[in-house]
Design goal:
Helices cover 42% and strands 14% of the residues. It is α/β, with parallel strands linked by helices and 481 residues long. The strands form four sheets. It has a five-stranded mixed β-sheet, with helices on one face. Strands 10-9-13-15-14 form a five-stranded mixed β-sheet, sandwiched between helices.
């Protein structure tokens, strides 16, 4: 059995040097007795622990970045068994490269729990370190000191975080497991245990006042609070003195808040109301016009789609248009612009009607659904087809548009538009390309939605379908003549 003594205060290179030497010599995990030195700085192999020189043909051990990240965290744990655990994992990884993916493995599970504990301890350090200002030389940089009691050897690990965040002041963080200091030019760390300094001052009262002012008894959840601020940290937090009393008084304060009468609004509230009263009343569009209908639809909330959309995208065009084109719903660009058919599908539509000699300014263009339905995917908003319920909710607006515009010819582009206009689910291809008589002497013409053309992956077939779509536009031109 080879006995190895390490200082073991979060120094990864210390363990790595020893583990690499033993691994190169082929020393099995069960042949090494790892120990942690308690007092003397530095580390050294004991005489009987020195490994023999590795064979000339020895194959060096290799590990994945995942193991390096795991080992760098576990080595900061305070459990003395961490050295042997890591060496055993190192040895086993040479036979099974996917060992760390086996969460059910006892050693892997133990290492992951250690890693999680170190990460949690590091997070608490960033949350609960409180700097106190100390006397500094005249004209010099401000100096601060803080005391923290970590569970593990994380001071050197977290020191760069504090250096980046508090680079404009000199500071010292003292802990029972070492210290870190920054003087404006150099970050230094030490593994020497520190004694708790007396750093209480007048700012403690400021912390207590601040904490008491933001404490909301109506939202008190003791277990959640203690999960974020465990009791072991309370003794070093000045505001923690208030916590037991605040918890004890919470219920009475909530009852008092409920019984308290409403207070008068602040003085500025009356000034805002007076200023609003002096504003001229907005000019409302005449009732029974498209503009009035557009203003009413702008605040529509009949279905959940309005909650995620940027705005209502209403139809546009003259109120005496002879042709009305109806699409499915606005897309991403239409949702942002507030106008129908201005995105990629709108460009296909514009090119097709222009080639057919149709003037868009004489058309009324709208959609069956007035709000953009989408699924967020990263920074993109991916179109989702509206369901039948959402289409039915919006039929109200489409019917009012038809009643006001009174077009002679209605063009349904896509199955959703066809369902919204007829109330029936029919096969698009069965009706496409021929006029259908409707009530009040109107004609219905069915074609595909231009976005369908953009989704066809095969270029040859896309060209064929585009030609057919343009032929539909020529037929529409003839029907309107």
């Amino acid at each position: 059995m080879r006995r190895v003594v390490l200082e073991g205060r979060g120094n990864f290179e210390e363990w790595r040097k020893a583990a690499r030497a033993f691994a190169a010599a082929g020393i099995l995990p069960e042949e090494i007795d790892w120990h942690e030195k308690s007092s003397e700085p530095g580390f050294a192999f004991q005489r009987d622990a020195l490994p023999p020189a590795p064979p000339a043909d020895a194959k060096p051990m290799s590990v994945s970045p995942a193991f390096m990240a795991l080992a760098e965290a576990v080595i900061c744990h305070s459990d003395a068994r961490r050295f042997s655990l890591l060496y055993s994992l190192l040895w086993r990884l040479q036979e099974n490269r996917n060992l760390l993916d086996l969460a059910s493995d006892e050693e892997v599970s133990r290492a992951l729990l250690m890693q999680k504990s170190v990460h949690r301890d590091a997070h608490k350090m960033t949350a609960f370190v409180r700097f106190k200002e100390v006397a500094a030389p005249a004209g010099g940089r401000r100096k601060f000191i803080a005391w923290f009691e970590p569970d593990h050897y994380i001071v050197a690990r977290k020191a760069p975080f504090f250096q980046r965040r508090f680079t404009d002041m000199d500071w010292l963080i003292a802990t029972p497991k070492g210290s870190a200091a920054w003087d404006g030019e150099r970050l230094t760390t030490s593994n020497v245990a520190c004694e708790k300094p007396d750093i209480s001052d007048a700012t403690d009262d400021l912390w207590r006042i601040y904490y008491a002012s933001i404490f909301n008894p109506a939202r008190l959840k003791v277990k959640a609070m203690q999960a974020e601020m465990p009791k072991k940290y309370w003794k070093n937090l000045p505001e923690a003195d208030l916590i037991p009393g605040l918890i004890a008084e919470a219920e009475a304060k909530v009852l008092a808040m409920a019984e308290r009468e409403a207070t008068m609004p602040l003085p500025y509230h009356n000034k805002i109301q007076e200023a609003a009263a002096r504003m001229p009343a907005p000019q409302m569009a005449p009732a029974g016009t498209l503009e009035a209908l557009r203003e009413e639809a702008a605040v529509c909330s009949q279905c959940p789609l309005h909650a995620k959309a940027t705005q209502t995208v209403f139809g546009e065009g003259p109120d005496d248009a002879e042709i009305m084109f109806v699409g499915e719903q606005p897309g991403d660009q239409e949702d942002l612009a507030g106008r129908p058919f201005v995105g990629p599908a709108g460009k296909v539509f514009d090119e097709a009607i222009a080639q057919a000699g149709i003037d868009r300014s004489r058309l009324y263009v709208t959609n069956a659904v007035k709000h953009f339905k989408y699924e967020p995917r990263g920074k993109r908003r991916i179109h989702q087809k509206p369901n039948l319920g959402e289409v039915q909710h919006c039929r109200w607006w489409l019917k009012l548009e038809l009643d006001l515009v009174k077009p002679k010819l209605i063009v349904a582009m896509g199955a959703t538009a066809l369902y919204s206009l007829t109330g029936e689910k029919q096969k698009l291809e069965d009706l496409r390309g021929r006029p259908i008589a409707m009530e009040e002497g109107r004609l219905l013409f069915v074609t595909v939605h231009p976005s369908y053309l953009l989704r066809i992956p095969d270029e040859g077939r896309r060209a064929q379908e585009l030609t057919r779509f343009r032929q539909d536009m020529n037929l529409i031109k003839g029907l309107a003549a």
